[in-house]
Structure to design on (153 residues):
């Protein structure tokens, strides 16, 4: 992304900082390929801007935890990693092995939180809905009638 594009994208942010948005974009694309094209990061940014403080704090904390893990393992931001390194971080985050290390559990919870936000945003997008089989020509000519015997007023 060029400087002008980066400035334009940053100007549109509602809640996240430009750095957080870049991190989210990289994490989202690694979790659900196609997320960048579906503009998942911008949609999540908009949702967070209207969400409560607790959800906002949890999301930012989860994003920071992914970045901390990336820096600990590879000494660089998540977005700067090679695909195989991103995959290793996500594999360790989604491992089903129950470890007694409290830090590992926090990392898994952070990953789970991000995954839920990202997958929800992606499959709410037109691209994601099409992937699930939705087509724009699926409409009701008229709404089916109510099947309740007592009807509605």
């Amino acid at each position: 992304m060029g400087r002008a594009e980066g400035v334009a994208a940053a100007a549109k942010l509602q809640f996240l900082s430009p750095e957080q948005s870049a991190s989210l974009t990289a994490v989202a694309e690694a979790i659900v390929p196609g997320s960048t094209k579906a503009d998942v990061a911008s949609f999540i940014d908009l949702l967070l801007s209207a969400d409560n403080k607790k959800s906002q704090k949890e999301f930012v904390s989860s994003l920071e935890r992914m970045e901390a893990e990336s820096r600990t393992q590879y000494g660089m931001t998540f977005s700067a990693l090679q695909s195989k390194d991103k995959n290793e971080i996500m594999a360790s985050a989604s491992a089903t092995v129950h470890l007694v290390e409290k830090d590992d559990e926090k990392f898994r919870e952070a990953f789970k939180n991000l995954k839920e936000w990202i997958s929800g945003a992606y499959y709410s997008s037109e691209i994601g809905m099409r992937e699930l089989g939705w087509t724009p020509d699926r409409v009701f000519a008229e709404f089916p009638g109510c099947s309740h015997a007592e009807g509605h007023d």
In short: The chain has seven helices and no strands.
